[in-house]
Amino acid sequence: MGNIQVGILMGSDSDLPVMQRAASVLREFGIEYFMTVASAHRTPDRVIELAKRAENEGWKILIAGAGMAAHLAGFIAAHTVLPVIGVPMDSSPLGGLDALLSTVQMPGGVPVATMGLGSAGAKNAGLFAVEILALQDPELKQKLKDYREEQRKLIEEKAAALSQQ
To answer: Among its keywords, does the record have Coiled coil (predicted)?
Structure first.
């Protein structure tokens, strides 16, 4: 591992298929990341150690995904001044509403940027991390612009194909 920029934490390995979406985005943009499982409730000391490690090693951003009302993102944010991006999992009997509310309803003074539920939220967490890093990196900013242009072209192609049917 070279220069880790982003840490990705998830409350359970069952969250891995979703959180891989964030990792995939970071890989696409050439951003070094570290990914692990750490539970705010079952391994709180591990979470605190990871938050301290992130600061000590110069990581820039932490992405935290958890389901149910397991408030991993908020717990991490309470132990670091690094930006924390929360990804609520949609895996609970409540369809993720519990995870969404526990992530988005932070008390004033301890911010967590909350993405949407599940896979789309994880992908957006990766992209949001890239956007934050691009503030200080013109090359990365250009890669983001190119990415957005590719997205635009794909939609135009799909629209053209649909109009020909």
So the answer is: yes
pLDDT of the residue at 50:
98
Average pLDDT over residues 11-24: 96
Range of the domain at 23: 6-138
Which residues are bridge partners to 9 per DSSP? Answer: 36, 64
Which residue in this structure is represented by tokens 């600061």?
Answer: 55
**For residue 40, what is the domain's CATH number?**
3.40.50.1970
User: In total, how many domains does the chain have?
Assistant: 1
The answer to whether residue 160 is domain-embedded is no
Answer yes or no: is 149 within a domain.
no
Tell me the C-alpha distance between 116 and 87, whole Å: 7
Annotated binding site for substrate: 12, 15, 42
* Backbone φ, ψ for residue 59 (5° rounding): -60, 155
Binding residues: 12, 15, 42
- Determine if the pTM surpasses 0.90: yes
**pLDDT tens column, 118-162:** 999 999 999 999 999 999 999 999 999 999 999 999 999 999 999
